[in-house]
Amino acid sequence: MDQFSRMELLVGAAGIEKLRNSRVAVFGIGGVGGYVVEALARSGVGTLDLIDNDKVCLTNLNRQIIATHSTIGAYKVDVAKKRVLDINPEAVVNTYRTFFMPETAAEFHFCAYDYVVDAIDTVTGKIQLVMQAEASSTPIISCMGAGNKMNPAAFKVADIYKTSVCPLAKVMRRELKNRGIKKLKVVYSEEVPIVPDRDAEAMEVTDSRKRIPGSNAFVPSVAGLIIAGEVVNDLLRSGA
Questions:
Q1: CATH assignment of the domain containing 153
Q2: In this structure, is residue 1 part of a structural domain?
Q3: Taking the CB of residue 237, how many other CB atoms lie within 10 A of it?
């Protein structure tokens, strides 16, 4: 037996080998993306590319699997890489301390990936990821809004054009339609967003350009695990 023997009971030796030979890029290693990386590593995905320019901070502790007091101040991709290799020393982990936007998109060649995970929170970056994946015919799954939610059971997997309720999905539907994108697999929540307590937000030091969404330990993590499950199952069904 080896560490993936329990997984092999479900997917067979050929499935384990397919996952070992797969390369997945995860853009955004936060509340959602961190759990995606965790589950992919524990499922035996052989090569992971981790993209995020952020560092672990105190307010990440309530929801991000890579965030502990000992990792505060460290780059998220570096913390995630160390964790992946502690789970599976044979994995290949490529890290990029990069904020993905159209200006940095040329650094990434999607034809090298078997799957792309969009777990970033900027609309411009999300659109660029989808367009780049479309151009290279690379499978992609995108996370819609996970902030300001309290019900982890409200998540669904659907095509972007079949989503409802989620404000981010509404924006993405419009923008992708304008760009001629016909489909996009997403994970989204049908829970109506909660209006955050702005008095509590005012106590935080924040980027004045945007309002901080409320978040917790159990909503973004569920979104991330759903995404990881979709990626693994799609890889097993594909010729990857």
A1: 3.40.50.720
A2: no
A3: 10
In a domain, 6, yes or no: no
95: its two tokens: 């890290």
Q: What is the pLDDT along the chain (240 residues), one digit of tens a residue?
A: 799 999 999 999 999 999 999 999 999 999 999 999 999 999 999 999 999 999 999 999 999 999 999 999 999 999 999 999 999 999 999 999 999 999 999 999 999 999 999 999 999 999 999 999 999 999 999 999 999 999 999 999 999 999 999 999 999 999 999 999 999 999 999 999 999 876 554 444 444 446 789 999 999 999 999 999 999 999 999 964
d(CA 30, CA 36): 9
Amino acid identity of residue 128, one-letter, is Q
Letter string b/e over residues 17-45, b meaning 16 or more CB atoms within 10 A of that residue's CB:
ebbeebbbbbbbbbbbbbbbbbbbbebbb
Report the number of distinct structural domains present in the chain.
1
Q: Please report whether residue 141 resides in a domain.
A: yes
Tell me the sheet residues that pair with 48.
24, 93
Q: In what order do the strands lie in the sheet with 92-96?
A: 92-96, 47-51, 23-27, 115-118, 140-143, 185-189, 155-159
Q: Which domain holds residue 181?
A: 12-237
173 belongs to a structural domain? yes
Kindly report the pTM of this predicted structure: 0.94
Q: Please name the residues in contact with 102: beta carbons below 8 A apart, sequence gap of 6 or more.
A: 124, 125, 128
Share in percent of the chain as helix, strand, coil (round to 5): 45, 15, 40
- Quote the strand ranges of the chain, DSSP E: 23-27, 47-51, 92-96, 115-118, 140-143, 155-159, 185-189
Give which of 190, 150, 186 is closest to 167, Cα–Cα: 190
